[in-house]
Design a protein that fits this description.
The protein is of the alpha/beta class. It contains 9 helices and 15 strands.
Length: 288
């Protein structure tokens, strides 16, 4: 998730928020692929390596060998490649062509047979077909880009075959409400889903990079835990697990977080990490 220099509520609901957000991700994708934070070189040079995000998820994912999987909002494909290396037959889907260019290049360099599809999340069923997936996976920083959490859950349910599984880890809504000002976190953003997006502006990103970045806006939405769980239930999926974690794989609260001692790539509050739910993992299945 981006950490821009300035944030404000935008009371104008934008008809084509996809184009605005696509432009942002198209601009950032090359810098993300070159940044050490995504560790693309490690994945490229070590055929057994997986991303830190997927390594964190692996104990909950379990054995995914032979599963037909989709990585929704896959960005540059580091997690998609990692799931492939764990044995799943993976497809990646994203609305950013520049991100998919990086993902396809990485897969080709690694000799990985991964299909990448350019599509908005809400159009995923039209792009891929319904009811054929064993696993729909989504990783950190995805739900904020979607204005309607119920619609997202229905898409996931339509994509899954009976018995198929949703696995998503994302930033916790509790963390998303804060902004750090002069080293002090303050409540700044909605917890519950709003009709109007929150607009972010800035020529920044969430990875270490010296690459020049365009000053582009993004439009984002928050979704509370209850709203997410209810959306999954309304879509006909059965919840099997919901875990909350004290860490997240980026510095969600500027200047207040430190590396997790047990999980590479994860950060948690430097002081009293037990006081903040930084991310969550949700699992659900489509009944047979």
């Amino acid at each position: 998730m981006a950490v821009p220099a300035a944030r404000r509520h935008d009371r104008r609901v934008t008809d084509d928020y996809r184009a605005i957000n696509r432009a942002y991700w198209d601009d950032r994708a090359p810098a993300h692929a070159a940044s050490t934070d995504y560790a693309v070189d490690r994945l490229r040079n070590d055929p057994s390596a997986v991303s830190d995000v997927v390594a964190f998820d692996a104990p909950r994912l379990g054995d995914i060998r032979g599963l037909t999987g989709l990585h929704l909002q896959c960005h540059i494909g580091t997690d998609t490649l990692s799931l492939h290396r764990l044995g799943a037959r993976m497809t990646g889907l994203d609305l950013s062509p520049a991100s998919l260019e990086q993902a396809r290049r990485l897969a080709a360099e690694c000799g990985a047979d991964i299909e990448y599809v350019e599509s908005d999340t809400y159009a995923a069923v039209d792009a891929l077909g319904a009811g054929r997936l064993d696993l729909v996976y989504s990783s950190i920083g995805t739900l904020i880009w979607l204005p309607d959490i119920d619609r997202w859950a229905r898409v996931v349910a339509d994509l899954l075959a009976p018995g198929g599984r949703l696995f998503i880890r994302d930033t916790h809504p509790m963390t998303n409400v804060f902004e750090v000002v002069d080293g002090i976190p303050r409540l700044a953003y909605p917890y519950f889903q709003q009709t109007e997006p929150i607009r972010f502006d800035g020529a920044e990103t969430y990875v270490e990079t010296d690459a020049p970045l365009a000053d582009l806006p993004t439009l984002e939405w928050t979704h509370g835990v209850g709203e997410i769980l209810t959306a999954v239930s309304r879509a006909g999926l059965a919840l099997t697990a919901f875990d909350e974690h004290d860490s997240v794989p980026y510095e969600a609260l500027d200047g207040l977080m430190a590396p997790h001692p047990d999980h590479p790539g994860e950060l948690r509050l430097r002081e009293h990490p037990e006081r903040l739910a930084a991310s969550f993992t949700l699992q659900a299945v489509k009944p047979v």
